[in-house]
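Customer escalation, tier 2.

The customer says the design service returned an amino acid string that "doesn't look like it belongs to this structure." They asked us to rerun it and document both sides in this ticket. The original structure tokens are below, unchanged.
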């Protein structure tokens, strides 16, 4: 990964920012996933609520993007979620135990929104700073910070889950979010001072709260990105529901579930960081964006076929680790490179619409598909086999995106 003059400092700042974001999220993720295992009969309802909240959140975020420069709205987004965590802490501490089931459900919806928004804001900011050629060289390393944050967060939860109350984990997650806000300000200030190594575009993005949506339907390039992401959400959702079912059946104790899920996240992030540190930049440069985007769908296809033949918890662990590590280490940097070739409004607003509304819309549809297949009497194994052909189509779309990226770059 050759780093050129002027790139080291912003690359390290972006890496540290990604570390803090994922550190905070992975502290909370096992808590969220344990709720899904405990309340698995209502998952599709919860995901419907997530989608509706996203429809409200995207225009509010776009309005902030249109009104304020990135030095304001990026830190503001992180601090908004930190304040929300403090509110959950107060609710868990003061409200009676009988209210816990509804606090859990609201927290599940909130965490699902949080997970996408903070990551979307981070990568939109990074794509606004670095150019396409820089992204292919540097995004893999920047993503290492995210994986290290995931390892730190999941490790902290794995150690504390059986010994500390949940509200303590919420307080712990506030710290990296505040650090992320400060790093975003520092990175923007560096871009203002050292603009030769980074993009020179600064100031307000402009437009309206809704102006990022139309380009997604108007641009074939953005439509392909949205379709690729929608198919990824289908594969991820089916795997997530299979996981919720199998983990819920395997562990009766909620603390044991949290600890198991945290260890699973640790394994995912460990493999992710090895791949990012040693392979991601080389793979992106050698085989291109398109083939890189097709690799994870290929893993998903084999994984669903394996779960269809051997629907065991051990099979799930292997599939989940390979799939999620590939998604984070390869698919995520490759997809973010695509956004370096669009305008600023598309980097922030259209990207937010795709990453939030389209992503959670895909979750919603996929969740009800899973519920419908289960209602028809299909087993976990049979549902996995149904998902395999969809993953093949997902791979084909990835190859097409690679060709579109080449045309846009030229």
């Amino acid at each position: 990964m050759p780093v050129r003059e002027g790139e080291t400092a912003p690359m390290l700042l972006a890496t540290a920012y990604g570390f803090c974001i994922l550190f905070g999220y992975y502290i909370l993720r096992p808590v969220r996933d344990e709720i899904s295992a405990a309340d698995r009969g209502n998952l599709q309802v919860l995901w419907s609520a997530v989608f509706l909240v996203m429809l409200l959140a995207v225009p509010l975020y776009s309005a902030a993007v249109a009104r304020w420069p990135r030095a304001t709205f990026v830190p503001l987004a992180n601090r908004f979620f930190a304040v929300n965590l403090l509110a959950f802490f107060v609710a868990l501490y003061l409200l009676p135990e009988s209210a816990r089931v509804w606090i859990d459900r609201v927290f599940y919806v909130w965490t699902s929104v949080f997970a996408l928004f903070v990551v979307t804001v981070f990568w939109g900011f990074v794509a606004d700073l670095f150019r396409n050629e820089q992204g292919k060289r540097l995004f893999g390393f920047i993503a290492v910070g995210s994986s290290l944050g995931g390892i730190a967060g999941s490790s902290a939860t794995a150690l504390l889950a059986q010994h500390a109350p949940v509200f303590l984990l919420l307080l712990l997650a506030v710290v990296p979010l505040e650090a992320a806000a400060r790093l975003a300000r520092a990175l923007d200030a560096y871009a203002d001072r050292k603009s030769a190594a980074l993009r020179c575009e600064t100031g307000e993005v402009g437009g309206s709260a809704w102006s990022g949506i139309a380009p997604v339907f108007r641009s074939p390039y953005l439509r392909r990105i949205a379709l690729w992401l929608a198919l990824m959400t289908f594969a991820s959702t089916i795997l997530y529901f299979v996981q919720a079912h199998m983990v819920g059946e395997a562990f009766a104790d909620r603390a044991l579930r949290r600890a198991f899920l945290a260890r699973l996240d640790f394994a995912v992030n460990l493999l992710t960081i090895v791949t990012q540190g040693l392979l991601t930049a080389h793979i992106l440069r050698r085989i291109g964006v398109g083939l890189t985007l097709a690799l994870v769908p290929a893993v998903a296809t084999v994984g669903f076929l394996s779960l269809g033949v051997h629907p065991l918890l051990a099979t799930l662990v292997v599939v989940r680790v390979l799939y999620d590590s590939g998604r984070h280490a390869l698919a995520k940097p490759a997809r973010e490179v695509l956004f370096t070739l669009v305008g600023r409004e598309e980097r922030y607003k259209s990207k937010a619409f795709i990453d939030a509304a389209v992503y959670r819309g895909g979750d919603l549809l996929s969740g009800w598909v899973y519920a419908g297949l289960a209602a028809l009497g299909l087993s976990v194994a049979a549902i996995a086999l149904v998902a395999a052909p969809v993953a093949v189509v997902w791979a084909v779309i990835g190859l097409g995106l690679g060709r579109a990226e080449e045309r846009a770059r030229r």
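Tier 2 assessment: The sequence is consistent with the input. The chain has a mean pLDDT of 88. The chain has one domain: 8-409. Sent an explanation to the customer and offered a walkthrough call.
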